[in-house]
Design goal:
Blueprint: H1 2-12, H2 18-29, H3 33-43, H4 53-66, H5 71-80, H6 82-88, H7 99-109, H8 113-130, E1 137-146, E2 161-170, E3 176-193, E4 198-206, H9 215-225, H10 229-232, E5 235-237, H11 245-253, E6 257-259, H12 275-278, E7 288-293, E8 298-302, H13 308-311, E9 327-330, H14 347-354, H15 357-369, H16 380-403
Parallel strand pairs: 1-5, 5-6
Antiparallel strand pairs: 1-3, 2-3, 3-4, 7-8, 8-9
Helix pairs in contact: 1-2, 2-4, 2-16, 4-16, 8-16
Length: 419
Amino acid sequence: MLRHQFTLWLEQEEEVSPVEHRIVSVLMALDAERLLSVMNHERGAQGRDDYPNRVMWNCMIAFGCLCVRSVPEGIKFLRLSPGLRRICGIPSARAVPNKYAFYRFERRLANHVDLIEEIFAGLVRRLKELLPGFGERLATDSTKLHSQAHGRKPSVDSDASWKKYEHTHTDEKGRKRKSSVTWFGYKLHMIVDALYELPIAELVTTARDNDATHDAALWKKAKETLPGLEKIAKSNAKDKGYDEKVVYETSWKDGVEPIIPLKDQTEDENKVLLPENQQVCPRGDALRFDGYETARNALRYDLPKTCPKEMGGGYCELSDTCAQKFMRVKVTEENLRHLGPVVRESKKFKRLYRGRTAVERVNSRLKAHDGLDEIRRRGIKRVSIWALVALLCMNAFAVTVATEGRIKEVRKTVWSIAA
């Protein structure tokens, strides 16, 4: 019904602005019928229907497409734009809902976050059908969401918390410096497709929790969102914050290669089992990494490049007595974190780890362009709603672009306009 109404509106309209066209495309790609049906049933026949749930939902999605930072800002757009009001189903400027109506609608939506996530899951599954290779190369990270609560106190926003990041870097003169970042609010954890830079799963938590703490829950959510993901995914790139044994075990249990660099530590546990400190020939030259054998679950190392047997010439003082051959190092739960299926010194690891920048770009779009870091909301449920709205708009527009065959433009969901 909704798709038919908006299609007729597009056909009858002589001039449609690109922004309005984008909002219509997003609304047509969203299957919100179950959510609206449940909310209508809750309201009942005796409830007031001054602002229908469908109108309020259309306005929320329009706010997400317009990257508004607050409800009053979105209301201003509705009052100024007749085209936007027509899309949302509002007859006149005087009929635009007030901010308190939107706040009440948000509170009602907060009771149905699971239904909003079903809409998001439907988009992800649709993207899997449209985009070749979607879900094979993944990237995981979190980003901070500042709470705008007055005073930034837990007593004002009980779900938010303080978090402090400390960084150590080397300056131009070679001296080590420490810097720190402190903020009050939340974290948005995401798994995204590293090729198309589109989100697959999300999780909003309080700021104080470490990233690795929620990795298992996020991965479980991703598998529920896209069934069979563990069979599709080949690797998952993460930063050093996920360098924990349990994170490696979670990924490797499903056959997904964890691409995680080791933390910058000096403990003895980080000095053992590393390939460059263990696999050497009798003369002390490092053996050459020759790949991973899936059948044996082992890393294969061959003769060093400097070996006369390998080069077919040269000199080695131990060539008469050396019996060095290739060797295998079996990957177990004990050495999985240090070795892993992809050696960190290999070109493959560096290539796959570069894919982690995909999630950084998604974070940047959500915060810098969609204004997700400036929303005036308190409570983890309401923050989750606005995070989901932003992700819905991103994936819904990507579905529209991919359906039209413009696959190369799905990563340009911020600036791309439907042609």
